[in-house]
């Protein structure tokens, strides 16, 4: 499905392939010979999404942008099945494996790899030719790559990055009370814009 959102329609090179049940929505640009496979969702919500030439986005991958965080993928990039990318930058020749997650403000530099179920957190820069091992977590700048069982070390780096403020514009409450009502009300309002989407 090719969908117009917020008066912006996807621009898809004629040599690209979009599977019949993939969704491409909003201000999305897809380059030459790129293949968007079955069940993939490429959703531009405010910010734009740009996918370069000769890229592969495999089954059920989710690529998203937000108002504050556009998504850019350069050339010769493979995004594996069930991977999740939002508001990040991916340079040339990057491999993102099955189930990997790349978050807002992250940058994967040329030739880097994120292996199965690897995570690259907000504002994290993965240098050229660097690899995140299977299931490990890349966090911070300067970069630390840690196994998931070292949660306290990951959290010590991640907490000051302030995910809710950076992504949603909502500060954590000092007493630890939930901020989910603020976040969900804001997102309900923003996502309401999809009610006016049009198939192209």
Describe the structure in your own words.
This is Carbonic anhydrase/acetyltransferase isoleucine patch superfamily-like protein. Keywords: Transferase. GO terms for molecular function: transferase activity. InterPro entries: Transf_Hexapept/Carb_Anhydrase (IPR050484), Trimer_LpxA-like_sf (IPR011004). The chain has 200 residues and is α/β, with parallel strands linked by helices. It has a single domain (2-199), classed as 3 Solenoid (UDP N-Acetylglucosamine Acyltransferase, domain 1). Helices cover 13% and strands 30% of the residues. The protein has three helices and 24 strands. It has helices at residues 151-158, 163-168, 180-191, and strands at 2-4, 11-12, 17-18, 23-25, 28-30, 35-36, 41-44, 49-51, 56-57, 62-65, 71-73, 78-79, 84-86, 89-90, 95-96, 101-102, 107-108, 113-114, 119-120, 125-126, 131-132, 137-139, 144-146, 198-199. Strands 23-22-19-16-13-10-7-4-1-24 form a ten-stranded mixed beta sheet, with helices on one face. A seven-stranded parallel beta sheet has the order 2-5-8-11-14-17-20, with no helix packed on it. A seven-stranded parallel beta sheet has the order 3-6-9-12-15-18-21, with no helix packed on it. Strand 22 and strand 23 form a beta hairpin. The longest helix is centred in the C-terminal third of the chain and has 12 residues, at 180-191.
């Amino acid at each position: 499905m090719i969908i117009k959102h917020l008066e912006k329609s996807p621009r898809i090179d004629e040599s690209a392939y979009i599977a019949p049940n993939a969704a491409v929505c909003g201000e999305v640009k897809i380059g030459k010979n790129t293949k968007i496979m079955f069940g993939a969702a490429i959703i531009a919500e405010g910010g734009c999404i740009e996918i370069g030439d000769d890229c592969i986005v495999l089954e059920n991958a989710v690529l998203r942008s937000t108002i504050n965080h556009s998504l850019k993928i350069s050339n010769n990039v493979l995004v594996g099945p069930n991977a999740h990318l939002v508001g990040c930058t991916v340079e040339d020749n990057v491999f993102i494996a099955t189930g990997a997650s790349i978050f807002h403000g992250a940058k994967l530099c040329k030739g880097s790899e994120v292996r199965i179920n690897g995570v690259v957190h907000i504002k994290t820069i993965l240098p050229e030719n660097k690899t995140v091992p299977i299931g490990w977590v890349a966090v911070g700048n300067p970069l630390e790559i840690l196994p998931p069982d070292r949660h306290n070390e990951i959290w010590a780096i991640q907490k000051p990055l302030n995910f809710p403020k950076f992504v949603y514009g909502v500060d954590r409450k000092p007493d630890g009370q939930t901020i989910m009502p603020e976040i969900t009300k804001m997102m309900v309002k923003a996502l309401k814009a999809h009610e006016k989407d049009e198939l192209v």
